[in-house]
Design a protein that fits this description.
The structure is a homodimer of 451-residue chains.
Chain A (H helix, E strand, L loop, with lengths): L3 H8 L3 E3 L2 H4 L18 E2 L4 H14 L2 E5 L15 E5 L6 E5 L4 E4 L5 H9 L3 E2 L12 H7 L6 H4 L6 E7 L5 E5 L11 H5 L8 E8 L1 E2 L5 E7 L2 H14 L5 E6 H11 L9 E7 L4 H11 L3 E6 L3 H12 L1 H6 L3 E4 L2 E2 L5 H15 L2 E7 L4 E8 L4 H20 L15 H7 L2 H14 L12
Parallel strand pairs in A: 2-4, 3-4
Antiparallel strand pairs in A: 1-2, 5-6, 6-10, 7-11, 8-9, 8-10, 12-14, 12-15, 13-14, 13-18, 16-19, 17-19, 18-19
Helix pairs in contact in A: 8-13, 13-14
């Protein structure tokens, strides 16, 4: 067996650093309240062959491995763990090919999602997934968490656009899943097994994504409501009407006030909630007219005359998290409930905020029932930290009670590891562990995550 | 340990029959050239609890188990195997609930797909998957094969509409996968792992499906072409134009002649191919006008004035398989190639037909590249049988050479078991086996299938 030094020497320039001053910044993502550690080694391969080499060396040396994209995750899945080597995909940022005829692209995992969207748009094509981090997160990370975004109400999540993967397994074997054709049922859907597996089954080294023709520029509607219930009724009515919206977002009073404080948008203090709706359908104007009819309890409804005006109307939504960040330290939750239970969830969150004397802003993807309660607290105050955690737990618990899930699009990571067993039952947990062991018997991929 | 007789007595009325005269008809599906056997026992449970009881008894008795839907499969995945008990889901045909607000339905596996489509349509909802067998096949079977249909070019396949499953594992444990919310990433996507697994991982006992608002009645366009190449160019142009069609089907000369012989539709003998195109978009008339422009090489283009006329125009497509069946025994293939390679595939099939002196009709889902070459042969003539098999192999081989897959929507079953290892590599086959073993260590579910 080679020594650690020999192993590192063998890996050569793949080794980014072993200097804690450098590796420390590869030891955490954007989550709060999650365990983290400075990685002893950061590896940064550029090719599949180099990733395989990394994992073979790791297997030989008995290292555990944390795969890492851009570190923009919100659940700690890319956090460093004691003695775990970090494998960063940031040097693997090539768009290998874009095929406009078959409408697919092949990319390395380190490609920034927004860059891919821009590159395919140049060819009149559309890669829908648009997580909030779209400008800074990478395709590999999006695949690892099955990232969503505002597009999901019409277009679905990342996994809906992944046709195939190349993955390096824990022992260094290279697995190809999926296909380049529109359909195919040869064998198990291993592609979907890896999507959302948060780095616990292997390292994704290439992604084949399905593309759509570029949609029309959307038209935008903004509606404000004096009560949360009225906004909730509008969401239900829009959904029930069956009109095809490409965005259906909600912001609550706390979030609106924070945005107003930041950008002076002139929101009335009486505004309890705002809905932001888009349609990119051929009959978008008719769709938004139907949406307006569904907003019976609205105080005010504004429809952008053209796409540019829509961009202005959306500004408030885009500022939601930055504005809440101004209020203090923040803990961002990501629960998803049946669409009809959104008001119940937000009501509960407001009660929790009052009870714990915390500011909690709520915004999110109303069309999917996927909400992001953002708890503002003071990191330096133990009592405030404890209150934030209690609020987080109460909200997550309530989402489950409403028939929802603990995570709509951010993943389990370290943040919700304890919660997974509360959502799933013993049989499901046992099957998860069995599948994991089948692919990584020694449990060396992303230890301490998800399970 | 209980004896076989005691075990059967314990199962009571779950045992449908042990009489070979009765069980024989549960020993095969609609495939040709696949191994089959008369099952010693057919079990027909009505509830999840009874399915679990069946699998516990099977585990105790050492029986292998073939799960069976309606037996309409085309790859032999529901064929009986020596000593394997058949577990039929035909008594599990309850639509448990339809939720128009959350737009989902919960159904037992034995529900006929067409019945579910009709039931949700009554509430203004739409379950898109429409395999050719839609009037006779069941949701459970559709889930097992990840069935497709003519809807896929716009709406996707069965798996795209499955939110969650209840599955009884080989040892009798009941596993729940997925969720009732629009999004969710808690744990691995076990739902998709079971979809398309052809009964090799467990028995699906309940399916939660996602529904859409009912679409508009589609408008239909039919175009005929003097050469296959001209039809292929039209498919490429339609795809490249990015217009949203909800159906894009092709039929070749052999199929058209067979349909004409059956129904006297007056097709010109010079017609080499026909495209059938639908749009259910709000701007369907404009979409079909664009499609007509894309059909530059067409001999004739007809657009239905209204949905009723569209139904008439579609008649030829609906008669494709029945008409080919009139010509003799048939072996139906199901390959999928990149959309741009359809003409290459059909050209090759015509050459194979000439070479082997066989009639081979080709029809299929041009929008997905998913073709159904239908080889006509004489079951009673060994030379004809051998020729049909050679043709089948040559076509499947060519689909792989074109970057396609051995099966677009029918599944591997027994028919293409040997082909799976030619599409997948050794690592993929090893991972498939490892996943299978993780869930069914004794290999008792649907032995001799897929692998």
């Amino acid at each position: 067996m080679t020594t650690r030094e020999e192993a590192l020497a063998g890996l050569g320039r793949i080794v980014l650093s072993t200097d804690p001053d450098v590796t420390a910044s590869y030891g955490f993502d954007q989550s709060r309240f999650t365990d983290r550690a400075t990685p002893p080694i950061v590896l940064a391969p550029t090719t599949t062959v180099e990733v395989a080499e990394c994992l073979r060396v790791a297997a030989e040396q008995g290292w555990t491995v944390v795969p890492r994209g851009a570190g923009t995750g919100l659940s700690g899945a890319a956090n460093g763990a004691a003695d775990a080597v970090v494998l960063s995909t940031h040097r693997m940022r090539s768009i290998v090919s874009i095929d406009p005829v078959e409408r697919l692209a092949v990319v390395q995992p380190g490609v920034v999602t927004g860059d891919l969207r821009a590159a395919v748009a140049e060819q009149g094509l559309f890669y829908p997934p648009d997580p909030g981090s779209v400008a800074i997160s990478t395709i590999g990370g999006n695949v690892a968490t099955n990232a969503g975004g505002m597009c999901c109400v019409k277009y679905g999540v990342t996994g809906d656009f992944v046709l195939g993967l190349e993955v390096v397994l824990a022992d260094g074997r290279v697995l190809r899943t999926g296909r380049r054709t529109a359909k195919g049922v040869a064998g198990y859907d291993l592609t979907r097994l890896f999507v959302g597996s948060e780095g616990t089954l292997g390292v994704v080294t290439e992604v084949t994504v399905r593309l759509l023709p570029a949609p029309r520029e959307p038209l935008t509607l903004v509606a404000t409501f004096g009560t949360l219930a009225a906004a909730g009724e509008a969401v239900a009515a829009i959904t029930a009407s069956g009109v095809s919206v490409s965005m259906l977002e909600i912001m609550d009073r706390t979030t609106l006030r924070a945005v107003d404080r930041m950008a002076r948008m002139g929101f009335d203090d009486d505004t309890a909630a705002m809905l932001l709706v888009q349609s990119d359908a051929p009959d978008a104007a008719a769709v938004l007219a139907d949406v307006e009819k569904a907003c019976v309890g609205a105080v005010d409804v504004a429809i952008g005359e053209d796409p540019a005006e829509g961009t202005q109307l959306l500004e408030a939504r885009r500022l939601a998290l930055p504005a809440l960040e101004q209020l203090g330290d923040w803990l961002l939750d990501d629960v998803c409930v049946p669409r009809s239970r959104i008001v119940d969830l937000i009501d509960h969150i407001e009660a929790v905020a009052a009870d714990e004397q915390l500011t909690i802003g709520v915004f999110g993807h109303a069309g999917d029932g996927n909400m992001h309660p953002t708890i503002i607290y003071d990191e330096s105050d133990p009592a405030s930290r404890a209150g934030a955690l209690r609020a987080f737990d109460r909200i997550t618990r309530h989402a489950l009670d409403l028939g929802g899930t603990i995570t709509g699009e951010h993943g389990v990571g370290r943040l919700k590891k304890d919660w997974l067993a509360r959502e799933l039952d013993d049989t499901s947990m046992a099957v998860h562990r069995a599948v994991r062991s089948a692919l990584d018997p020694e449990g060396r991929m992303n230890p301490g995550n998800v399970f």
